Amino acid sequence: MTVTSRAANSTIPPVAVKTRMSKDINYYPSAMVVYVQMSHGFSPVLGASVTAVISPENGDPISLELLDNGAGSDIVKNDGIYSKYLFSFPGNGRYSLKAHVQANRTIVPQTAKLWSHAMYIPGYVENGKMNPSRPPAIKSDIQVRRGGFHRTAVGESFIISAVPMGPHADVFPPCKIIDLVARIEDDKVILSWTAPGNDFDKGQAASYEIRISESPLELRDSFYNTGVVNTSTLSPQHAGCKEIFAFKPEAFTTGNITIIYVAMHAIDDFLHSELSNIAQAVKFVPPMVYTTSNTEFSFSTILLLVFGLLTVVCITVSTTLCLVKKTKKKTLSENAAKFL
Hints:
2 helices; Immunoglobulin-like
């Protein structure tokens, strides 16, 4: 039997799915990442349900839900690349990879547009300065809906070695927080990020350690020598949930601008994650503006005083001249009377 397929419309590109692992050969306890890339022409496909099935030679398959949320193993949000950590293996040997993708009729492929493909790394410090915030994405109104679809993609097999027998010790820390964002509202710093797990992006972390500084270099190089934020009221949520936390810091002021840099660790029972990206919170304090009414009043007062003094001087001089003239005239009259 021969089966052939063709596109429903030759002018519309098909939805393509590719899947792969981060490595072909891996040694426990090193973690791996499963990737599934979905594209519609040159545009990423967003909002799909992606499941990867990893099957060992012997044993039950492992099912993972892959996400494109810009957290955990996913470097960039909404780029059409779905990913997930793979770190739990039932044993040594060869594993196969298969990805199942499903989307309903509400899936919206993002239309192709001109944009920079350069990687943006939040909180990157170079020469003592932190890179600016990512420019806002330009939203397009020409996005279109496509019908529902289902795709299956098969990736290459990979080999796992050095998996110990019996129960495994906790050797996997929470994953690095890569989407930490900070802003200042009403003298409080508002933080938001995606919760990591107890082991990478699975489970629930035990606690967070948040620190602040006026210098991003100090946070990066001397994290434990910076200011500590009280997180006693902060309880980590399950991996993938959105975390929001507010605190009131000590005043860090440079001129008319208040700048606070924030970084954090996620902690499980034994280990902690890598240092998160460094977030920057900025509050502009406008300089004191003096109203011109006082200045105008003072200037007007000075003018009035000057005119008043000039008037007094003129009156005094005029009066003096009149008196002198009258006295002189009277003297001349008396002298003339004597001669007569």
